Protein: Cloroperoxidase
Organism: Sistotremastrum suecicum HHB10207 ss-3
Amino acid sequence: MDSSRPQLSNHGYLPRDGRDISCSQLYHALREVYNLSIPLTIVLVYGTFLILGKLSLSSPHLRFSDLHKLSQHNKVEHDASLVHANASPKDAKWAPTQVDPELLDQLMEHAEDAAKDHDGLTPTDFGKIRALRNRVALVNGPLSYPHRLLAWGESAFLIAVLGGPEERIRPEVLRAFVGEEKLPVEEGWVRPSKKVGLDTVNDIRKRVQNAQSDWEKAHLDSSPEA
């Protein structure tokens, strides 16, 4: 779930240049800023190191030499990101790290519509968004199941930390977080008052996944994952 990490650097919770970041720094920043539970933070931090091939018994003091390594294609990063273009060519080692303006505009259209209809983006909305994004972005084949879990989990994480008790993300909060890569404090966001745990994120993830499946079943010509 790399969508939360540029914000931590941009606000000084991690080194602003994104370099030489210790496992401990990342762990404490995630817990402090987003009020994550210990188990969820361990999964996010050590899971990231494991996926990147950096976790081993011979490396007790784990560090990121550069946050840019999170953009290594088909590791933590995957095709069909909500606001980042696919890696090109498809076997490229690195994926784009800059927010794609067109993809951001598309996401914000969904957010504005959801805000008018029911006060913000919900898990059901993210299921539809993921289905539509996959339809366009996965013409060369579906994501692997682990990357599908990451994609659903990223949407769930956004809802859990940005959506408040009502699980609804307001457009201005979403734009600040994913578009401007900043913590949306000026937009009225506050740190979750209740600890965000594995069970919470997994429950939302299942609802996003089910909503995507329901949308695809209702539109049988939809995505490569249908």
